[in-house]
Amino acid sequence: MANEAQEAAAALLQALAVFKFTPQQAFQVETLAAFGMSFGVRRNAFEDGLQYLLDNNLLVRDGEVDLHLTELGCEKMREAVDEASRLAAARRKARGTVVPEEVRRKRDALAGVPCKVNWCDDNDLDDENMEGAGPGGDLNPFGWYVVGTTGGGNAIVVRVDDPGVYYADHEWDADNTADGVRRALLPLAPSIDGFRRSVVEIDARLDEIG
């Protein structure tokens, strides 16, 4: 239990680092829970991780719902990010690059689209598409690759031989066949240009399904 709580706490600190929180900024418990979900922290693990941060003076409460980072929390936050980067680099080195260049090109074309998607940089692209990552690791054997993520760890995916842009839920549930995988994906746009032209509608749909 202690190790699980520490792992959840580290993921929560990484989430706070992404959003550049400082001790002067208050945030609510539910906000932190949502951040944690995007880093793969389940609700039951979130409670343990939050308690670990409070018990070790990395976070402090301000009233019933508000939280603040402490100076020690900021220091540990930077350490958690550095450790995550080190582990990710080691994983990438161990497995080599498997994301096709055409997928990287599509990612580049989508990355300029201002919408409610966190587009993957090169490191994220590798991390999201590796064995054990969800949903990328489940999709890669069938030719699909994660190029962006939305709230809760859901993914935007493409493939080399399909012009469309698709949505994959982080709680992946499809039979282990190419047809089953394709049926489980939700089409967002028939092409990258179509995605660009329909940003408002796609944002609304992501709010609805995400």
State the CATH topology of the largest domain. Answer: SMI1/KNR4-like
Got a strand count? Answer: 8
CATH 2nd-level architecture of the largest domain: 3-Layer(aba) Sandwich
Question: Which whole number gives the mean pLDDT?
Answer: 87
Rg on CA atoms, Å: 18 Å
* Helicity level: 40-55%
Level-1 CATH class name of the largest domain? Alpha Beta
Shape: globular
Backbone structural class: alpha+beta
Taking the sheet with the most strands, its summary is:
5 strands, antiparallel
Number of helices: 10
Q: What share of the residues does DSSP label as strand, in percent? A: 15-25%
* Structural domain count: 2
Describe the fold and architecture.
- With 210 residues, this protein is an alpha+beta fold.
- Helices cover 53% and strands 16% of the residues.
- The protein has 10 helices and 8 strands.
- The strands form 2 sheets. It has a 5-stranded antiparallel sheet. The protein has a 3-stranded antiparallel sheet with strand order 1-3-2.
- The model has no long low-confidence stretch (mean pLDDT 87).
